[in-house]
Design brief:
This protein is of the alpha+beta class. It contains 4 helices and 22 strands.
């Protein structure tokens, strides 16, 4: 019995020793392998490019909110009422000033135009006829005056008529002769028959004078009649000319009606609203379209009360909208309200923004940066040097062949550079390539 117990004990001890030797052998083998591996591993070195942090004078600004509005907007209505026969636009259409938006029915106006043009032609013919009558009447006057020995424009008097003057001279001489014979008759130096002969001559000349005066009166009457005909003919010219002028006025009215039947765009821009259809009757109080000009937009900025003193006309502004978060639209302050809003305590400032490519739309909300006149020195590094880790931005400063990780606070972008408000000093070198492989303390080769 004892012998069996000893044998089992010895066997157990042998087994334990064997297992221990095997374990030690395995451990030594792993240690040797590890030592061999450690002997072959070299320190890691990462290739990278670097850039020097520089200082630039950057413009300063403060932020505000704003809303975009069109530079000009107008409702288009017809000048005259009528039925629409054509529409050449739709919502969103780009129209230029003077282009035809719609056409109204102008058939009645064209008929009136044809009628008035015919009236003008007839009136002009009447004027020419009246002018011919005037010339004929004037010719009659000149002919009558010529027969009487008068020149055109001279004044005519019966007593100055040549025949009247001649007869009057003969009568005066006969009166004197009769008076002389009457004295001689009293002295008995002439006979009664000689006296009676002189008296008969005197009486004959008196009759001739009356006849000459009658003839002159007839001539005067003829001249006056001819002159009256001239005046009547001139009146006819005036009446015909007045009729022609009235016809011209009616023609211009008809032409205006035709022109007014064409509805044109009053400004260049985009159609924001259309309220007209073919066949619809529109009045002068009914708009058919709304046009907005968007090449230049007005940016209405709400400036907080504490920043009122930092805004002047002519300042530059930069606007960003949610539709294009990576783009900036520049503008200039053009108008400043004279007073603050009593409720919101903000100052309304207007800036004009050039709508490049028509990307901006009236009504869009914008975040605005208003540039200040005094720039400030700012540390700038390439954008490629910044590594985003969640909401944290990091850079790697390269010094002495090793990388040092730093948390930085960034600012504005300027082309391919970014402002570093905190974390990097001027003239420090930052890694700008392979930054995804670089970590704090790693060796780098430039």
């Amino acid at each position: 019995m004892k012998t069996r117990i000893i044998t089992k004990t010895a066997a157990y001890a042998f087994l334990t020793l064997t297992l221990s030797l095997l374990i030690n052998a395995c451990g030594n083998s792993k240690a040797e392998n590890a030592a061999k591996v450690n002997i072959n591993i070299e320190p890691q070195i990462i290739e990278t490019k670097t850039a020097r942090a520089i200082v630039q004078n950057m413009p300063t600004y403060f932020e505000a909110t704003g809303t975009l509005a069109s530079d000009a907007q107008t409702d288009v209505a017809p000048t005259v009422g009528g039925k629409i026969t054509a529409v050449n636009f739709d919502i969103g259409s780009y129209v230029e000033r003077g282009s035809v938006l719609a056409q109204l029915d102008d058939r009645d106006a064209r008929i009136r135009l044809e009628q008035t043009e015919a009236q003008i032609a007839q009136a002009q013919s009447n004027v020419r006829q009246a002018q011919a009558q005037v010339e004929q009447a004037r010719a009659n006057v000149r002919q009558t005056q010529s027969r009487l020995g008068l020149t055109e424009g001279s004044k005519f008097d019966i007593e100055t008529f040549s025949q009247v003057r001649a007869t009057q001279a003969q009568l005066d001489l006969a009166e004197k002769e009769l008076g002389r014979f009457e004295r001689l008759l009293e002295t008995g130096d002439v006979s009664r028959s000689a006296y009676d002969q002189r008296k008969a001559q005197r009486d004959q000349l008196r009759a001739q004078l009356d006849e000459s005066r009658s003839t002159a009166a007839v001539a005067v009457s003829a001249i006056r009649t001819a002159q009256a005909q001239v005046e009547m003919a001139q009146a006819g010219v005036g009446a015909a000319q007045a009729a022609a002028d009235a016809a011209r006025t009616q023609t211009e009215t008809a032409r205006k009606a035709i022109a007014d039947a064409v509805i044109i765009a009053p400004l260049t821009g985009y159609v924001a609203e259309r309220t007209a259809d073919v066949g619809e009757f529109v009045s002068t109080t009914q708009k058919i379209a709304t046009i907005v000009r968007t090449s230049i937009l007005r940016l209405r900025i709400d400036v907080p009360e504490q920043s009122v003193g930092q805004v002047i006309v002519g300042q530059g502004v930069s606007a960003q909208v949610s539709a294009y978060p990576d783009r900036k639209f520049s503008g200039t302050v053009t108008r400043i309200s004279p007073n603050l809003n009593a409720t919101s305590r903000v100052l309304v400032v207007e800036a004009e923004v050039e709508n490049v490519g028509g990307l901006l739309k009236p009504g869009q909300f914008a975040t605005v940066r208003i540039t200040q006149p005094e720039p400030k020195p700012t540390v700038m590094i390439p954008v490629a040097a910044v590594k985003a880790d969640g909401e944290t931005n990091k850079v790697f400063i390269i010094t002495g062949g090793r990388a040092e990780e730093r948390i930085v606070k960034t600012g504005v972008l300027e082309n391919d550079l970014i402002e570093i408000q905190q974390g990097v000093q001027e003239n420090e070198f930052v890694a700008i390539s392979n930054i995804g492989q670089i970590y704090d303390g790693v060796s780098v080769r430039q």
